[in-house]
Design a protein that fits this description.
This protein has about 160 residues and is mainly alpha-helical. The chain is about 75% helix and about 0% strand. Helix 2 packs antiparallel against helix 3, helix 3 packs parallel to helix 5 and helix 6 runs antiparallel to helix 7. The longest helix has 18 residues. It is elongated, with a radius of gyration of 18 Å. The N and C termini lie far apart (about 55 Å). The relative contact order is 0.08.
Length: about 160
């Protein structure tokens, strides 16, 4: 079934020069209720990925991710983890290493809370240690790497983090 309103919105975005994928995602995000619904926030995370990966859209991506985190509720840990991880990636790419590390640690905490996402949590901890190291905060980097080794002694991320110990 074709949703006429969503298709009209998509055409409007296309007429403004947006790419088809972007226009379709933005129209779907709007129809889902934007930040006001769980479905909207999930689509918002997809849209934020699009913006962050597009050099011109990093500001929109950052604002969208911060709004998602502000609106996320109980049961939306996966969306929160995805948003914090993406913010960490964004800030690391902007050489904002201390902020990146904080978001990577939040992502690791969310992944751990969800239970079975050990590799995702280990990866986030590694990226946190790496970001602290890049920020010149060696004690923090060492502490995170030690935590990674304690929680996930057999993870490839732990082997990679030995350079911070």
């Amino acid at each position: 079934e074709v949703n006429i309103q969503r298709k009209m919105a998509e055409l409007r975005f296309l007429s403004q020069g947006m790419e088809l994928n972007h226009a379709a995602l933005l129209a779907e995000f709007q129809q889902a209720g934007k930040m006001g619904t769980v479905a909207g926030r999930k689509l918002g995370l997809e849209l934020a990925h699009f913006y962050v990966n597009d050099f011109d859209g990093t500001d929109e991506g950052e604002m969208l991710l911060l709004q998602i985190l502000e609106q996320c509720g109980v049961g939306e840990e996966a969306v929160a983890a995805g948003a914090t991880s993406l913010l960490g990636d964004l800030y690391r790419s902007q050489n904002r290493y201390q902020e990146a590390a904080g978001y990577f640690l939040q992502a690791a905490q969310s992944y751990l809370a969800m239970g079975d996402l050990h590799e995702e949590a280990a990866s986030a901890l590694y990226r946190g240690a790496e970001s602290f190291d890049a920020a010149g905060m060696t004690a923090d980097s060492r502490a995170v790497a030690h935590q990674l080794a304690t929680l996930f002694p057999k993870s490839p991320w732990t082997r990679a983090a030995k350079i911070f110990l």
